[in-house]
Design brief:
This protein has 249 residues and is an alpha+beta fold. It contains five helices and 14 strands. The protein has two domains: 186 residues, 2-Layer Sandwich (BirA Bifunctional Protein, domain 2); 51 residues, no CATH class. Helix content is 24%, strand content 35%. The strands form three sheets. It has a six-stranded antiparallel beta sheet with strand order 1-4-8-7-6-5. It has a six-stranded mixed beta sheet with strand order 12-11-10-9-14-13, with no helix packed on it. It has a two-stranded antiparallel sheet with strand order 2-3. Helix 2 packs across helix 4. 31% of the residues are buried. GO terms for molecular function: biotin--[biotin carboxyl-carrier protein] ligase activity. InterPro entries: aa-tRNA-synth_II/BPL/LPL (IPR045864), Biotin_CoA_COase_ligase (IPR004408), BPL_C (IPR003142), BPL_LPL_catalytic (IPR004143).
């Protein structure tokens, strides 16, 4: 629907579709994505000039959206310690334990403008199939003796889009260095248990490498002993959290 409408509307007009339930969603690599009632589900259209900081680093958009989702919750007074984190390249996690959301970005370049369709979804009020944000809030209340209220999907979609707009403005003005400190604050590999995390390259007997960060174009940087730092592209590799593997597809 948005793919048809986005070229019909005035350039200054924003466009977003919000779903209550998703039965034919698409993930990376052609994966099918099903989302029950209780998820925050939407697709957002934005336009990015090719000759801009972000236009020259389009892969960064998925990182900005993931960060915006986490910030949408953790920037609310009282909710700063709800343990939401971002995982490269496009996932939202509870600590380093469980995935509760993701981002998928499609871009089309027409003349000198990128038309970006951003699909994002995360569990807000549905405990299954994994865990949801309101579960984390209830857990936090029990452990800390607080009385934080549950959040709604509508509220968090609105906050995510607002935060994303601010992050894009900062990126366009200052480039990657304007947002990376904030990204690393919530990056899954910046947590105490994941700091300096080792991974295997290619297979379970492959060489050891250490996750370093992300480069100026949004690709993962790993340090392989004897070979220095190299970038790993998300469209050619999958990062297997369970087996600590970076595997070329």
């Amino acid at each position: 629907l948005i793919g048809r409408l986005m070229f019909e509307l005035p350039e200054e007009m924003g466009l977003i579709a919000v779903a209550v339930r998703q039965t034919q969603g698409k993930g990376r690599g052609g994966n099918v994505w099903l989302s029950p009632v209780g998820c925050a589900l939407s697709t957002l259209h934005i336009s990015i000039p090719l000759h801009s900081n972000l236009g020259q680093r389009i892969p960064f958009i998925q990182h900005l959206v993931s960060l915006a989702v986490v910030e949408a919750v953790r920037s609310i007074p009282g909710y700063e310690d709800i343990e939401l984190r971002v995982k490269w390249p496009n996932d939202i996690y509870y600590s380093d334990l469980m995935k509760l959301g993701g981002v998928l970005v499609n871009s089309t370049l027409i003349e000198t403008t990128f038309h970006i369709l951003i699909g994002f979804g995360f569990n807000v009020n549905n405990s299954n199939p994994t865990i949801c944000i309101n579960d984390l809030i209830a857990k936090f209340n029990k452990e800390e003796g607080t009385e934080l209220k549950p959040l709604s999907a509508d509220c968090l979609i609105a906050r995510t889009v607002t935060v994303l707009e601010r992050l894009i403005e900062v990126f366009q003005e200052k480039g990657p260095n304007g947002v990376l400190p904030q990204y690393y604050k919530y990056w899954i590999h910046s947590s105490l248990r994941c700091s300096g995390k080792q991974v295997r390259l290619r297979d379970e007997q492959g060489p050891l490498a250490w996750i370093v960060g992300i480069d100026d174009y949004g690709y993962l940087q790993v340090h392989e002993e004897g070979r220095g730092v190299e970038s790993v592209h998300p469209d050619g590799n999958s990062f297997d959290m369970l087996r600590n593997l970076i595997v070329p597809k």
